[in-house]
Amino acid sequence: QPKVDMRDGRVIGGEALVRWKHPEKGLVPPGEFIPVLEKNGFIINVDEYIWEKVFAYLGKLRKEGRTLIPVSINVSRLHAYDEKLTETLLRLREEYDVLPEYVPLELTESAFLEDEVGMYRRMESLRERGFLVSMDDFGTGYSSLEMLKKMPADIVEIDRAFVHGVDASNFDESFIQFIVAICHKVNIEVCAEGVETEAEFQILYPMNVDTIQGYYF
C-alpha cells in the first residue's frame, strides 16, 4: 500500500501487507487469520516470509538501477521472544544488499507488552544499525504516549480509527493536531493511516501530517 507525501502527492514509500489467497474461500483478510497465527506461533514464519519478499523485491529493483523507496514491514508481538530477530534482519540486509533505511520496521504497542525490556533492547540495536522504527496504530493503546517517551521512534502512524470520518469540529481532528505537534517537536515523522475519502484527505491536508496512506490512493 503506497505512502504519499502530503505536500506534493508523490509516492515516497509503502507498506507490505499480507492477504491469504485461499483456493476455495478467495481472498481472506488478515483480521481472520492473523489472530490464529499469533495464537499458535506461526506468525513468526509469516513475518519472515514477507520480510524476505520485501528485501528480495528491493534488491531486484536496485540491481535493475531503479530508484528505491522505503517499503515498511510489520514485526508482530511474538518477536518479543525472538532472540534471532536482529540476526534475521541483518542477514536479509546482507543477502539482498539493501540498506536498512529502505525497510522500516512497524510495531504496535502490543509488541512491547510481552517482553518490554527485551523488545526495547532489540529495537535500539536495530536502530543503531540503520533501521527505522515506526509505531503503528498509534493512539489506540493504553500507554502510547508513555511508549513514545521510552522509545523515541522515527515515525508515528496515527491509527485509522482517528482518521475515519474525521471532520473539522470533532475530537479526532484535535487529537491528530496534538500528536503532530508533539512528534514534530522531537523530530518524529507522522503518517495518517486509513485515508479512504476525498473529505478525509482535505481535512488532513492543513494539519502538517507528513505522509498519508489508505484506500483513497
Structure, described:
- By secondary structure, the protein is an alpha/beta fold.
- It is 44% helix and 18% strand.
- It has 9 helices and 10 strands.
- The protein has helices at residues 30-40, 43-63, 85-96, 110-114, 116-128, 144-150, 160-163, 171-185, 198-204, and strands spanning 2-5, 11-15, 20-22, 26-28, 71-74, 105-107, 133-138, 155-158, 189-192, 211-212.
- The strands form 2 sheets. It has an 8-stranded mixed β-barrel with strand order 1-2-5-6-7-8-9-10. It has a two-stranded antiparallel sheet with strand order 3-4.
- Strand 3 and strand 4 form a beta hairpin.
- Helix 2 (43-63) runs parallel beside helix 3 (85-96).
- The mean pLDDT is 90.
Keywords for this structure?
9 helices; two-stranded antiparallel ribbon; globular; alpha/beta; eight-stranded mixed barrel; 217 residues; 44% helix
What is the fold's blueprint, element by element?
Elements: E1 2-5, E2 11-15, E3 20-22, E4 26-28, H1 30-40, H2 43-63, E5 71-74, H3 85-96, E6 105-107, H4 110-114, H5 116-128, E7 133-138, H6 144-150, E8 155-158, H7 160-163, H8 171-185, E9 189-192, H9 198-204, E10 211-212
Parallel strand pairs: 2-5, 5-6, 6-7, 7-8, 8-9, 9-10
Antiparallel strand pairs: 1-2, 1-10, 3-4
Helix pairs in contact: 2-3
